[in-house]
């Protein structure tokens, strides 16, 4: 590559540039740099350092007045001044100067009309490997004429010493300048910052072109019927879209334009905590040469103990989508027939499957509900509700209603069916009940995708007013209606009302005067 391209960014005395290395070359570098360990499944394993997850509180967008007026400033889209950005840009450049660098050129977006070219600069080989796995790998012809639309300088080995003086959250910084098309990262090695960072940029660019961007997985059946699975982290996007009977389009980030659905990425990022090859055989088999495991525990023979969460519960593997044999080669498909909102309700209140009305679809999309299980301290078992608009508020630079409006229009135009599927707890909240089995969840999903759910007789739940099938295949009828799944009805009613109140409370923000997004009537009603 022309070294001037890096010098123009402000990098000085650049050492060797390892530009678009092959997997085998990267592998050699990772081993020579002592970054990774080999495992007996052929994949390499890396420890990502202090951070084993993203740092959302350290993410910022450069504020300019009166430009970038579209950004919905707030807790998830925090502003940083041009001056501070400039200062940290220099810190990042200094860190990456006088170094050998890994430069990786990739695409984000499989649709030619929407794709962006992204260049990542880093001093760590595994980070180059990670972005190569996760983004779309250009052909050698495409690399010859590659011009980046956006550049990420990953200076993770440096930190912001002056964060207090700057009035920032911590010494970690993940900052985006949507005008200059550049991002800088410091203080965290975690690869997810690069993946979800560019996703945030897609969520900025696409809606401004009238295209919807979505935090969802997607797959397509033999008849060409596309399905989308929206959901926050841990709700099952990756697990459930990886289905041997349906071609995988992608497991996490998609766009939807006038032609249909397209993946942003070229790889998957699966959780491997307690990975069971029997219930997730495709993901287990994807862990082979070129896959990159993160923060797993291995023994001396290179055997991975997937049940060991001692480094983090967020153990992961990234792999190119080709590792899933049944994937859609062009990473695109037609307009969806079915949309599934996944939620992992740790309160054990929401039914395993509900068919949503048009209004309920908008209500649950804007609510973006899931629940996490509370900390790892012993004895603390109270679930924690999370409401993250559009099932991905942390990645949305624009106001949630921008995405909701686009989704609503597309649902109407293409007559899409929308369902809510609870992959979380049943028969009691976290601590007393148990998690839905992947088998039962798949049965719910299969009945949606093959249309057989339409032959079911439905009933409507109290308070939430959700339409649920009375019987469905081999799933116990008592499980289909959570009220019957709980031993103690009083306890169920109490927990349901608590959750209902949280929904109502959260939705107040859309109930401003003459708001076209006041779908509160479609939400729960406490008697
Ligand atoms: N009923 C279920 N449906 C989906 N996933 C489940 C279920 N029960 C347990 N799991 C586990 O929950 C996790 C879901 O995570 P994942 O599919 O990575 O979610 P996402 O991609 O939405 O972040 C996986 O580790 C999976 O094994
Ligand atoms: C990769 C991520 O997404 P998910 O947990 O939804 O798979 C992430 O949030 O960093
Ligand atoms: Mn996922």
Quick summary of this structure?
GO terms for molecular function: ATP binding; kinase activity; metal ion binding; phosphoenolpyruvate carboxykinase (ATP) activity. This protein is α/β, with parallel strands linked by helices.
Please provide a written account of the structure.
This protein is α/β, with parallel strands linked by helices and 527 residues long. It folds into three domains: 3-35 and 57-211, Phosphoenolpyruvate Carboxykinase, domain 1 (3-Layer(aba) Sandwich), CATH 3.40.449; 268-321, Phosphoenolpyruvate Carboxykinase, domain 2 (Beta Complex); 335-522, Phosphoenolpyruvate Carboxykinase, domain 3 (Alpha-Beta Complex). 27% of the residues lie in helices and 24% in strands. The strands form eight sheets. The protein has an eight-stranded mixed β-sheet, sandwiched between helices. Strands 14-12-13-23-27-24 form a six-stranded mixed β-sheet. Helix 2 packs antiparallel against helix 4 (125-134) and helix 10 (358-367) packs antiparallel against helix 11 (400-414). The protein is globular and about 70 Å long. The termini are far apart. The structure holds adenosine-5'-diphosphate (ADP), phosphoenolpyruvate and manganese (II) ion. Phosphoenolpyruvate binds at residues 54, 192, 195-196, 233, 237-238, 252, 269. Substrate binds at residues 54, 190, 196, 316. Pathway: Carbohydrate biosynthesis; gluconeogenesis.
């Amino acid at each position: 590559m022309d070294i001037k391209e890096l010098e123009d960014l402000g990098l000085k005395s650049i050492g060797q540039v390892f530009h678009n290395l092959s997997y085998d070359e990267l592998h050699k570098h990772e081993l020579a740099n002592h970054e990774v360990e080999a495992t007996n499944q052929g994949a390499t394993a890396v420890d990502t350092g202090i951070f084993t997850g993203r740092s959302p509180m350290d993410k910022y967008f450069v504020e300019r007045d009166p430009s970038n007026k579209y950004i919905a400033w707030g807790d998830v889209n925090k502003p940083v001044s041009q001056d501070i950005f400039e200062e940290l840009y220099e810190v990042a450049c200094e860190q990456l100067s006088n170094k050998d660098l890994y430069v990786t050129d990739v695409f984000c977006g499989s649709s030619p009309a929407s794709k962006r070219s992204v260049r990542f600069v880093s001093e760590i080989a595994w980070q180059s490997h990670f972005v190569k796995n996760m983004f779309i790998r250009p052909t050698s012809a495409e690399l010859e004429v590659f011009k980046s639309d956006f550049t990420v300088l990953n200076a993770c080995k440096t930190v912001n010493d002056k964060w207090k003086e700057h009035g920032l959250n911590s010494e970690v910084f993940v900052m985006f300048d949507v005008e200059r098309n550049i991002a800088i990262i410091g203080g965290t090695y975690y690869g997810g910052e690069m993946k979800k960072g560019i996703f945030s940029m897609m969520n900025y660019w696409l809606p401004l072109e009238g295209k919807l961007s979505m935090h969802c997985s997607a797959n397509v059946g033999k008849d060409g019927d596309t399905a989308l699975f929206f959901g926050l982290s841990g709700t099952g996007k990756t697990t459930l879209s990886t289905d041997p009977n349906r071609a995988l389009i992608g497991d996490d980030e998609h766009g939807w334009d006038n032609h249909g659905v397209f993946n942003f990425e070229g790889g998957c990022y699966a959780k491997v905590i307690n990975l069971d090859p029997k219930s997730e055989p495709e993901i287990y088999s994807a862990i082979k040469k070129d896959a990159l495991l993160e923060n797993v525990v291995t023994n001396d023979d290179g055997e991975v103990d997937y049940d060991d969460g001692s480094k983090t519960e967020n153990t992961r593997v990234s792999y190119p989508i080709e590792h899933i044999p049944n994937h859609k080669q062009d990473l695109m498909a037609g307009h969806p027939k079915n949309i599934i909102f996944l939620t992992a309700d740790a309160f054990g209140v929401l039914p395993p499957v509900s068919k949503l009305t048009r209004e309920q679809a908008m209500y649950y999309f804007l609510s973006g509900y899931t629940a996490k299980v509370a900390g790892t301290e012993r004895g603390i078992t109270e679930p924690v509700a999370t409401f993250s608009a559009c099932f991905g508020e942390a990645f949305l630079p624009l106001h949630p209603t921008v995405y909701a409006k686009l989704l609503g229009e597309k649902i109407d135009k293409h007559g899409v069916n929308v369902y809510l599927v609870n992959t979380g707890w049943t028969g009691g909240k976290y601590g007393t009940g148990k998690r839905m089995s992947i088998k039962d969840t798949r049965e719910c999903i299969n009945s949606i995708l093959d249309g057989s759910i339409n032959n079911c007789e439905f009933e409507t739940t109290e308070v939430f007013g959700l339409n649920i099938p009375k019987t469905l295949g081999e799933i116990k009828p008592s499980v289909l209606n959570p009220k019957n799944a709980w031993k103690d009805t009083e306890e169920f009613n109490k927990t349901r009302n608590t959750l209902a109140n949280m929904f109502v409370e959260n939705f107040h923000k859309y109930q401003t005067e003459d708001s076209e997004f006041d779908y509160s009537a479609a939400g729960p009603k406490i008697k």
